[in-house]
Amino acid sequence: MMEALRSMAVFAAVIEQGSMNAAGRALGMTASAVSQHVRLLEQQHQVALLHRTTRKLTLTEAGSVFYRSCAAMLAAAREASVQMAALRDEPVGELRIAAPSGFAGGVLGQALAPLLAANPGLSLRLFFQDEMIDLVQHRIDLALRAGNQSDSTLVARHLADWPFVLVAAPSYLAARGEPQQPGQLYQHDWIGLEQDHGLTPLRLQREGDVEVLRLQCRIASNSMLSARAFALDGMGISMQPAPEVAGELAAGRLQRVLPEWQAPALPVYAVTPRRDVLPAKVRHAMAFLQQKFTRG
User: Fold this and answer.
1) Per residue of the chain (296 residues), what is the pLDDT tens digit?
2) Among 164, 163, 172, 173, CA closest to 193
3) Through-space distance between the first and last CA atoms of the chain, rounded to whole angstroms
4) pLDDT for res 231
5) Are residues 187 and 170 part of one domain?
6) Could you tell me which residues come within 8 angstroms of residue 296 by beta carbon, excluding any fewer than 6 positions away?
7) Cβ–Cβ < 8 Å for 191, 217
8) 54, 81, 136, 232: which one has the fewest Cβ atoms less than 10 Å from its Cβ?
9) At 206, is the secondary structure helix, strand, or coil?
10) What domain count does the chain have?
11) Both 69 and 43 in a single domain?
12) Which residue segment(s) compose the domain that 116 sits in?
């Protein structure tokens, strides 16, 4: 089949160039090799495609019909090449991004809005879930993942280290009081991130002092957004990514708890399946994400 397609391309070149010699020069072949391709086509289809004279070549009726199909095949191949080049060089098509639910709070939108505005041929499809998603199976172009990455089938690029802060609604702190030391968190309602009601380890550091607490969850969730919503509703204290709650803190809807104590920063990575060449849409998206995560 591949040889037949090659012969069709050679035949189309003969017609477009006007002679076998010219077709040979255009294709980097000898005229005899070009002639051989045409003879193979005629033998295969049991019909003459060209009238040959010493002065010129003219199409037979069958040759004219066959040439239209050959030309359409080449046009489709050229169009495919143009589309592949566009995917390589320009951010076009559907960009599929997976991320934990905690990133649904606005950071992704803020990072990628300029990319979408500048590229009308690009669309965005987001998958927010805290469970690990198979990038290949779900045709994910790019995933955001937190924590150290060890999957050798993926390529991970470090974006930033996100600081975490303890927060609560002003109404909760007004009713229950503000803890002054980490140990006082045991006296408060803790909104933890897990799927059961087990103990949640919390490590806090202030200069040379380190406190490791195992807090009993009053509310446990596997969703960062859900935990944030409960905190906003005055249901307890939660640990949240600082960039994701900056707006709530500035507006006074949330308040820092133990601001002089620091929780460990969490490394955030952009993860892609292993590919020799990334499409332009992925390269550009990673650049915009890197800029957003670096500047905050």
Assistant:
1) 677 788 888 888 888 888 888 888 888 889 889 989 988 888 888 999 988 776 778 888 888 898 888 888 888 877 776 666 655 667 888 999 999 877 876 778 888 899 899 888 899 999 988 778 888 888 899 999 887 777 767 888 898 888 899 999 999 999 999 999 999 999 999 998 875 444 568 999 998 899 999 998 999 887 888 899 999 999 999 999 888 898 999 999 999 999 999 998 888 899 998 766 788 888 889 888 988 887 76
2) 164
3) 55
4) 97
5) yes
6) 243, 246
7) yes
8) 54
9) strand
10) 3
11) yes
12) 93-155+268-295
Burial 6-37 (b: 16+ CB within 10 A, else e): ebbbbbbbbbebeebeebbeebebeeeebbeb
From the CB of residue 4, how many other CB atoms can be counted at a distance below 10 Å? 13
- Which residues have CB under 8 Å from 12's CB, separation 6+? 67, 70, 71, 73, 74
Q: Within this chain, do residues 137 and 177 fall inside the same structural domain, yes or no?
A: no
Whether residues 205 and 280 fall in one domain: no
Same domain? For 18 and 80 the reply is yes
248/175 same-domain check: yes
Q: Both 53 and 119 in a single domain?
A: no
Q: Compute the distance between CA of residue 80 and CA of residue 76 in angstroms, rounded to an integer.
A: 6
Beta strands in 129-183 (DSSP E): 142-146, 154-162, 164-168
Identify the CATH number of the domain in which residue 252 sits: 3.40.190.290
Q: Are 179 and 261 in contact (CB under 8 A)?
A: no
Q: What is the CATH number of the domain that holds 55?
A: 1.10.10.10
What are the residues whose beta carbons fall under 8 Å from the beta carbon of 67, sequence distance 6 or more? Answer: 11, 12, 15, 49, 59
- 3-state SS assignment for residue 198: coil
Alpha-carbon distance of 129 to 118, in angstroms, equals: 28
